[in-house]
């Protein structure tokens, strides 16, 4: 509730509809102002609170509300979320740690794409045929036994950890079974995800019904439906209708 005479909401900044008498009309209820709810999902799957989105176009980050303020992995201006009917546009605003969307179908990977399973932050690097320099000199390198890519663990910005070569038609990632294992990560399922190389040379990332999902870091604005899970900083949100 806002005091009579307020032009903007003291909590979210939304312009208030003011009647001729100088007070917001009784019909302007809180529900009328909510465009979307963001539900915080705890690691055990329970809800940890909600954040009401009261504008069709929003910039969010650390400092935008109680659910965001304690996460130091969030940039002050982290994400833009715009609501248009049944669709939501999610855009990374140049944040330091990125915005990740949970996969609901196979996702084509391109060189330097970053994704996350459990607590593992991984970058896909494509390995293409060596190119010849402009003067005709061939570039020296070790013989390639058939690798078409590699996964690199991102330890922190600009520093990689372990690297895993990718070969064959597909590579399965998991905690207990697969080609690349993350045995110490309890948030990774037994078989979690796989990368597949098509006959056309395209690489796809697929979630294998994991408990906690596979998340791709978005590079461009992405249109998603209500019900989408978005990972920002160290927090998982579900975008819901009000």
Secondary-structure map:
Blueprint: H1 30-33, E1 36-41, E2 47-53, E3 57-60, H2 66-69, E4 79-84, E5 87-92, E6 99-102, E7 107-109, E8 114-117, E9 120-126, E10 149-156, E11 159-166, E12 170-174, E13 180-181, E14 193-197, E15 203-207, E16 214-217, E17 222-225, E18 229-232, E19 235-240
Parallel strand pairs: 12-13
Antiparallel strand pairs: 1-2, 1-19, 3-4, 4-5, 5-17, 6-16, 6-18, 7-15, 8-9, 8-16, 9-10, 10-11, 12-14, 14-15, 18-19
Q: List the secondary-structure elements in sequence, H or E.
A: HEEEHEEEEEEEEEEEEEEEE
- Placed side by side, the strands forming the largest sheet appear as 2-1-19-18-6-16-8-9-10-11
Number of helices: 2
Radius of gyration: 22 Å
Helix content: under 10%
Q: What would the average pLDDT be, to the nearest integer?
A: 89
The strand count comes to 19
Structural class: mainly beta
- Report the portion of residues in β strands: 35-45%
Task: Report the sheet with the most strands, covering strand number, pairing sense and barrel closure.
Answer: 10 strands, antiparallel
The geometry reads as elongated
List unreliable stretches of 5+ residues.
none
N-to-C CA distance: 18 Å
């Amino acid at each position: 509730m806002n005091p009579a005479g307020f032009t903007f909401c003291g909590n979210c900044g939304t312009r208030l509809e003011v009647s001729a008498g100088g007070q917001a009309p009784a019909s302007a209820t809180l529900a009328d102002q909510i465009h979307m709810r963001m539900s915080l999902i705890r690691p055990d799957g329970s809800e940890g609170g909600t954040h009401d989105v009261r504008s069709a176009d929003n910039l969010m980050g650390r400092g935008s509300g109680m659910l965001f303020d304690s996460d130091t992995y969030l940039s002050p201006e982290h994400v833009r979320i715009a609501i248009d009917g049944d669709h939501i546009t999610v855009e990374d605003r140049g944040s330091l740690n990125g915005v990740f969307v949970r996969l609901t179908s196979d996702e084509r990977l391109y060189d330097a794409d970053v994704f996350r399973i459990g607590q593992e932050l991984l970058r896909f690097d494509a390995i293409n045929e060596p190119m010849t320099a402009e003067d005709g000199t061939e570039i020296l390198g070790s013989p390639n036994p058939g690798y078409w890519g590699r996964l690199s663990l991102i330890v922190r910005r600009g520093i990689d950890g372990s690297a895993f070569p990718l070969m064959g038609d597909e590579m399965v990632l998991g905690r207990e079974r697969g080609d690349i294992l993350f045995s110490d990560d309890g948030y990774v399922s037994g078989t979690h995800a796989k990368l597949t190389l098509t006959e056309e040379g395209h690489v796809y990332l697929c979630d294998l019904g994991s408990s906690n999902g596979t998340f791709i870091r978005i590079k461009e604005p992405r249109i998603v439906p209500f019900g989408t899970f978005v990972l920002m900083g160290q927090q998982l949100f579900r975008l819901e209708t009000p």
